[in-house]
Specification:
- This protein is mainly alpha-helical.
- It has 18 helices and 2 strands.
- The protein has helices at residues 10-36, 59-71, 76-79, 90-101, 105-110, 116-126, 129-159, 163-189, 199-210, 215-235, 244-264, 269-273, 275-285, 288-294, 296-301, 306-324, 332-350, 368-378; strands at residues 46-47, 52-53.
- A two-stranded antiparallel ribbon has the order 1-2.
- Strand 1 (46-47) and strand 2 (52-53) form a beta hairpin.
- The protein binds fe (ii) ion (2 copies).
Length: 393
């Protein structure tokens, strides 16, 4: 290619380069010394000489989370055609229309795009006002959690090392933003009052957001996201809530993120097993128990036993925590046995004729798609029951 070069002053070019080289040594030297003394230094954990973030490429993490998230990225316009979202690109829209042309009239009827009014009418047809309120009470608790998941994951971007891990966490930030705005619209479609955050949820989520560095991985990705994942698992089979399978798929990737990251960059023994770290983790988790008690009535209306739900959440949290190296004050089987004792005591006091049982063995995820996903993460069998448990109105 013919390019007409412009004249330059070679002496000026040389001088500019020399000045830059001196300044470079001064600026970086000063930041290196301050960094070593623990007095500050370079703010960005970026290694421009290797064109990577500190920690290296970590392509494994990028493949497992960033690439996979993009492969599984779902759009609200396709998953919730009744909503106000217009997030499909022209090519996706065209593909969708071609696929619709290829389906039979009967299939087209099933896949017909519901308008917002039709979706609301569907919800009214399936649920009583009290059932709608119960769904909104449970889902909005998760919706408030999505707001915090968005903030916490954004702040984790600063704490994880390597380009691959930052790419992975960036996908979580994007997915939490989508979860928050789509969940808000889904909850709004039920047309019943949306409750504020409960005090227990406020304490839990503020505690997670304020936690130090990677302890936020424990608080959000292990603890809070396992609760969210279990709620999605318990509700995704209900009419109008099928979109929760997509939320569940994303949350399952988010719960696996700390394990995959800490395999590459393990916590120190002290971070894993330190006396204070273990106690802090237990303290962070404690508000979840009264929170589940507060939701007992709404869960019961939806056919979900609050203690079976809590047992299945605690079992999953204990499993993921130990695999990631976030140890709790006592080994998982001992902690679970103690909580099971507490649950049975509460039930003996509040449920006439209660017989002692193992709530930690329970599984409240009912949907087949959800069960398949959970088997991959928790490597254990999940009991599946097809069909809704809520009586139709
Ligand atoms: Fe989420
Ligand atoms: Fe999440």
């Amino acid at each position: 290619m013919q390019i007409a070069e412009l004249p330059i002053n070679p002496r000026a070019v040389t001088w500019n380069r020399r000045v830059e080289a001196v300044l470079n040594r001064v600026v970086r030297g000063k930041d290196r010394v301050l960094g070593r003394l623990g007095l500050g230094g370079r703010v960005a954990d970026y290694d421009d000489e290797h064109y990577q973030f500190i920690g290296g490429a970590n392509d494994e993490m990028r493949r497992k989370h960033y690439d996979k998230s993009l492969r599984l990225l779902w759009k609200a316009e396709a998953a919730a055609p009744w909503s106000t979202f217009h997030d499909l690109g022209a090519a996706e829209q065209a593909l969708r229309e071609m696929a619709e042309l290829a389906t039979s009239p009967a299939e087209q009827q099933v896949r017909a795009r519901l308008t917002s009014a039709e979706f609301k009418a569907e919800l009214d047809r399936h649920y009583t006002p009290r059932q709608k309120q119960a769904i909104v009470n449970v889902l909005s608790a998760i919706g408030h959690g999505e707001a915090y998941a968005w903030l916490v994951s954004a702040s984790n971007l600063r704490d994880v090392r390597s380009s691959g891990a930052k790419a992975a966490v960036t996908m979580q930030v994007l997915e939490e933003a989508k979860h928050f705005v789509v969940m808000r619209e889904l909850v709004g479609a039920f047309g019943v009052p949306v409750p504020r955050q409960s005090a227990w949820e406020y304490l839990l989520l503020e505690g997670v957001l304020a936690a130090d560095g990677l302890e936020k991985f424990y608080g959000m990705n292990v603890l809070v996201e396992t609760i969210a994942l279990s709620i999605f698992g318990a509700l995704a089979h209900l009419p109008g809530l099928e979109i929760l399978r997509l939320f569940h798929l994303d949350e399952s990737r988010h719960t696996a993120l700390p394990m995959n990251y800490l395999k590459e960059f393990p916590l120190t023994q002290r971070q894993q097993r330190g006396f204070f770290a273990r106690r802090r983790r237990l303290r962070m988790a404690l508000p979840t128990l009264p929170l589940i008690l507060l939701l007992e009535e709404d869960l019961a209306i939806l056919g979900i036993d609050a203690f079976e739900f809590a047992g299945s959440v605690l079992r999953k949290v204990a499993h993921l925590s130990e695999r990631a190296g976030f140890y709790l004050p006592r080994p998982a089987p001992e902690m679970l046995a103690r909580f099971n004792g507490l649950f049975n005591l509460y039930c003996r006091l509040t449920r006439p004729g209660h017989l002692p049982r193992d709530f930690m063995d329970a599984e409240t995820s009912k949907d087949r798609v959800v069960a398949r996903t959970e088997r991959e993460i928790f490597a254990s069998e999940v009991v599946v029951e097809a069909g809704p448990r809520v009586a139709q109105a």
